[in-house]
Amino acid sequence: MFDFITSWIAAGGAFAVAFLMFLENVFPPIPSELVMPLAGYNAATGETNPILTLLGGLIGTVAGAWLWYELGRRLGRERLMRWIDRHGRWLTLTREDVERALGWFDRHGTAAIFFGRMIPTVRTLISVPAGLQRMGRIRFLLYTTAGSLVWVGALFGAGYLLESQYERVQGWLNPVTNGIIMVIVALYLWRVIRGKGRRDC
């Protein structure tokens, strides 16, 4: 699986990384903790351009955050909650998840946008209250881009440094990558089957 993902990223370059990171911000089973280190590894081996690959990851991340921001801004609280009631199951989201993100945003303000980009699960939802509270678009974009750059850059850098140690870790990279993907998919399916995000009528 490690070889498959790195080959796919090598073939698609920055566009593939941007697409995967966009999906990571919308569709839970795709983790940035797997995508960006592998993208960094590919860049270190010379398969892709390091700067373009990092920019691709950043652009995809910000685009995904922007989608949630606009949904919150355009739909408003009640319409968004009804949408989550109907479709949240497939994103493993509930209105309680959104309420928690709103509370966090209310307590921490713009700092929540910056630091929230670095916290798993929070980074997907934190854009929603920013949209619901009609935070300025430029302000949101600046804080989101800054926070995303720290997170994406750290993961990319870790993968880039991995290349020099590849001979030491090549024996367990594939099984570990396979295991991570299997656990993520299994957790997602379990949450969907449980009906998380679906409210009783």
UniProtKB/TrEMBL annotation:
Domain of life: Bacteria
Keyword presence, Transmembrane helix: yes
Keywords, in A-Z order: Cell membrane, Membrane, Transmembrane, Transmembrane helix
Location(s), subcellular: Cell membrane
Annotated TM spans: 7-30, 50-69, 140-160, 172-190
Signal peptide (UniProt feature, chain positions): none
A matching Pfam family: VTT_dom
Domain VTT: from-to ranges: 30-160
Membrane topology: Multi-pass membrane protein
Record carries keyword Membrane: yes
Main localization of the protein described in the UniProt heading: membrane
This protein's name: Membrane protein DedA with SNARE-associated domain
Organism in which the protein naturally occurs: Limimaricola variabilis
